[in-house]
Fold:
Amino acid sequence: MQANEVTTERLRRLAEARPGRGGKVLSVYVDLDPSEFATGPARATAITSVLDEAERELRDAPQLERGAREGLRSGLNRVRSFLEQEFDASGAHGVALFCDSGADLFEALKLPVGVGHKAVIDDT
Structure:
């Protein structure tokens, strides 16, 4: 059975979430389409790839204030820990994770469709 943790309420809460002054949001999308990532090693490779991309995004974002950078680094570590130790990929074709630099937001959503691999740092 395909997993789908996307609800109107969760989407509304995410759309309304705003980081504190000078804060940023890290969004991480991982494609887990079983036709490409059916095995544990294939999923692990996909996760490592997108986490590496998130690390590069963080490193290459010179406009980040020090506090936002440190908060996002902490958030990235939380995302890494979640994906490597807590996440159960059963039924998921993708996963979207969102965290902010102030640690007020951490949300992980199993998706019923693949989403491609992407890491983004932005205001929302």
User: Anything to note?
Assistant: The chain has a mean pLDDT of 86. The chain has four helices and four strands. Strands lie at 25-31, 94-100, 106-111, 118-122. The radius of gyration is 14 Å.
